[in-house]
Amino acid sequence: MTLNRVVPLFIVLVAIAALAMGLTAEIAFKLEPCILCLYQRVPYVAVGLLALLALKLPAGSFLARVLVGLCGLVFLSGAAIAVYHTGVEQHWWVSGCSGQLATGMSLDDLRTSLMSKPEKACDDVDWTLFGISFATYNAAFSGVLGLLSLAAAKRMKKNT
After folding, report:
1. Distance from CA of residue 4 to its chain's centroid?
2. What domains, with CATH codes, occur in the chain?
3. Among 12, 58, 90, 121, which residue's beta carbon has the most beta carbons within 10 A?
4. Do residues 51 and 75 lie in contact, with contact meaning Cβ atoms separated by under 8 Å?
């Protein structure tokens, strides 16, 4: 198997594994995701679809290299979302998703909010490993995958 096939296949497998990990944490371990957690899944769906499309193209085609490069950029955007989420968790900056009480609510707004299930606050960390949250691991993981994908796209160009 050539690099032109291995790289998109690897990206598809990574995307499936990352999405499966998020769903497993949510369903099997009952970890409720916040809105930023859900946003962090979108880049994995995007790179999975882009890499599948690259696999459908002839090996070594210019468009396949472009798609792998796009995967790298999408991974880097996912890393940026995860860094933002880490900042919210660590209270480095304020977010509308933080567990702060809203001010300036009318009595009707308050009644409505009490009747609905509150959204999970983005600064509420449910799981850590060695004191590091999912979002922080995802920032590092997505960043590395982004750089590797860009390097692979460049290398794929040289191999054709």
Report:
1. 24
2. 3-94+120-159 (1.20.1550)
3. 12
4. no
Q: How far apart are CA 144 and CA 101, in angstroms?
A: 36
Which runs of consecutive H residues, i.e. helices, occur in the chain?
Answer: 3-27, 35-39, 42-56, 62-89, 107-115, 134-159
Q: What is this structure's pTM?
A: 0.84
CB of 54 within 8 A of CB of 5?
no
User: Residue 158 region, left (φ>0) first, then alpha (ψ -120 to 50), else beta?
Assistant: alpha
Q: What would you report as the CA-atom Rg of the chain, rounded to the nearest whole angstrom? A: 19
Query: Alpha-carbon distance 70 to 147, whole Å?
Result: 11
